Amino acid sequence: MHDAIVHPSGARMRWVELPGADPARVYVHGLGATSAPYYAGVATHPLLPRRRSLLIDLLGFGISDRPRDFTYTLEAHADALAEALRKAGVEGTAVIAHSMGGSVATVLAARHGELVSNLILVDANLDPYPPAPVQPGGSGIASYTEESFVSHGWKDVRDRVGPNWWSTMRLADLRGLHRTAVSLAEGTTPPMRDLLAALPIPRAYLYPEGAAPAGADGLRAAGVQVLGIPESGHNIMLDNPEAFARTLTTLLP
């Protein structure tokens, strides 16, 4: 396990690192997830040439610290991730990021462009959404106030998301989980799609085949490769790791 201090409180981000040649690859998890369980299979897949790979957990999630005075916005997550990558000696990296992590990775590439040379979004959140009781990706977390979520709302979410997602969501700091979900629901300024369109690097958006993302034509017009992965749902890397790895071989150096 590796770590780096990324916050004035002394809070550390931690990651599992797989040895290999540079340039490195960085894998970023989604909301309520953790990177190693989601990515270990594809990061070591025989179809992919071996590279140094960081399976990193954002603050508040998985094996990383949970500072109370961290805002847990998408921008704050991106800046903390940038600090971790700099301290790990990583620059010009390919970032593979799932769901909410794709939003963080897009902000990372926009704010810290020297760190990211290639961005691969995996069924990522590109648009804000109103905090209705149940929302794709957030499962209604943002519909609660922070205090009501911490006191009882998490139990409702636990029952909705099921045992697989909850197995990693239960590792998250409840306040951090809620603040991240709220920021995800609110989106970014400029909007996430504008940030993605303006990036001067290779970009790809992977989605479950048959469920193309909203605005797919606009993404393509901005130079983003939009690629469907067969026999998969939202967790593409778990549902069809071979097709996911095969697709990565066409996108990664």
Automatic annotation (TrEMBL):
Classification via InterPro entries: AB_hydrolase_1, AB_hydrolase_fold, AB_hydrolase_sf
Domain of life: Bacteria
GO cellular component terms attached to this protein's record: membrane
Record-annotated membrane-spanning stretches: none
AB hydrolase-1 domain: residues covered: 26-130
MF-aspect GO terms: hydrolase activity
Gene3D superfamilies in the cross-refs: alpha/beta hydrolase
PANTHER family: HYDROLASE, PUTATIVE (AFU_ORTHOLOGUE AFUA_2G14860)-RELATED, MONOACYLGLYCEROL LIPASE
Protein name (record): Alpha/beta fold hydrolase
